[in-house]
Amino acid sequence: MPLAPVHIVRTGTANLASVVAALTRAGVQPALTSDPAEIENAKAVILPGVGSFGAAMEGIRAARIEHVLRDRIIAGRPTLSICLGLQVLFESSEETPGVPGLGVVPGIIGRFSGGVRIPQLGWNRVEADPMCTLLAGGDAYYANSYRAMTPPPGFSCAWTTHGERFIAAMERGAVLACQFHPELSGRWGAELIERWLDRAGVERAASSAGLPGKESAPC
């Protein structure tokens, strides 16, 4: 019997190839979708994103998947949000004033301050709070100019510093949202994806390729 796929949401603002490759290495069949019924019924969903907050939300609303994504995350169903996928969970972003996000968690995404290099592009250290069960300390690959700083109620967080301390990732049950790119973060990122797949109850075949090293990088 074929394994149940993990559905990757087409937002129109994501480089999907690296996410597809990461799932394949983990022994999972990826399936790309923008169909509301598929997202609603999927065992596990990945919401990736690269680009601007406004463009991502425009793609989500054009596909009429805003409500199924929101309901899925509020219900705690297995969902992995990556990079911009984390940011759209919030109410809004300084990047695109006036455009509401999914509003799953309270708060506004802000731009890095303090004269640091923007975008943050490359590797940075992640430190996980003791309450985290999926997230662990390690080195992750980032490509971001905006960040969240206030931990949402009910989530356990990991942190990174780029001029200021910000949320590297947050977890609640089978919901995991990463500001970094776990699919580009070498062995550490691959192991995080596998822990999330196991938490989601996704059956995996034997890995078909070796795990990437830290030299893996750009989108």
Brief characterization of the structure:
With 219 residues, the chain is α/β, with parallel strands linked by helices. It has helices at 16-25, 36-41, 53-62, 66-74, 84-87, 186-200; strands at 6-9, 30-33, 45-47, 79-82, 92-93, 108-111, 120-128, 138-144, 146-147, 156-161, 165-172, 175-178.
Would you write up a description of this structure?
This protein has 219 residues and is of the alpha/beta class. Helices cover 25% and strands 26% of the residues. The chain has helices at residues 16-25, 36-41, 53-62, 66-74, 84-87, 186-200, and strands at residues 6-9, 30-33, 45-47, 79-82, 92-93, 108-111, 120-128, 138-144, 146-147, 156-161, 165-172, 175-178. A nine-stranded mixed beta sheet has the order 2-1-3-4-12-11-10-7-8. Strands 5-6-9 form a three-stranded mixed beta sheet, with no helix packed on it. Strand 1 (6-9), helix 1 (16-25) and strand 2 form a beta-alpha-beta unit. It is globular.
